[in-house]
Design brief:
Layout lengths: L8 H27 L11 H4 L5 E6 L4 E6 L7 E8 L2 E6 L17 E5 L8 E11 L5 E5 L6 E4 L2
Antiparallel strand pairs: 1-2, 2-5, 3-4, 3-6, 6-7, 6-8
Length: 157
């Protein structure tokens, strides 16, 4: 007669608990990746909501290639991105990054900036998008690019 032996109840219980813990960890990491880490401004408000309060003026001179920017609101703007559209395509550049002309501390309320925006050959329009800085729950500073709807479009003549 052949003796058939199965797993002992203790080993089966340990394996079931290990499988549940691993699956729980996978679900936790998946959800954490979807939700992302929230950024807050230094006064404690969510940076995504602060984007709605950003106010600025921007003009582009096609004859000189200069972008003129003024922060007219009460929210400091860390950087600005320019989405340059034309001929069925677009490119996005961080204004003043290549030549270091953007102020290191950003454009505080009332701050002005003017600089060459040379990547506009063949472009139809420029969308100026503000970038804010906030901190994570661990205290690390991170930048946050506002949504395109919070930007301003400048047509190029």
């Amino acid at each position: 007669m052949i003796k058939k032996r199965g797993l002992s109840p203790v080993i089966a219980t340990v394996l079931l608990i290990a499988i549940v813990v691993v699956l729980g960890l996978i679900v936790f990491l998946w959800i954490r990746g979807i939700v992302g880490e929230s950024l807050v401004k230094f006064d404690g408000r969510n940076v995504q909501l602060v984007c709605d309060e950003v106010e600025f003026e921007a003009e582009y001179s096609s004859s000189t290639g200069f972008l003129y920017f003024s922060n007219t609101g009460n929210v400091p703007i860390y950087k600005i991105k320019a989405k340059i559209s034309g001929a069925g395509s677009y490119s996005t550049v961080v204004v003043g990054e290549s030549d270091g002309s953007w102020p290191e501390t950003g454009a505080n309320p009332g701050g002005l900036y003017s600089g060459l925006l040379s990547e506009t050959a063949g472009a139809d329009s420029i969308l100026i998008i503000p970038v804010l800085i906030g901190k994570t729950s661990s205290g690390e500073k991170k930048s946050y690019t506002c949504e395109e709807r919070q930007g301003k479009e400048i047509p190029i003549n």
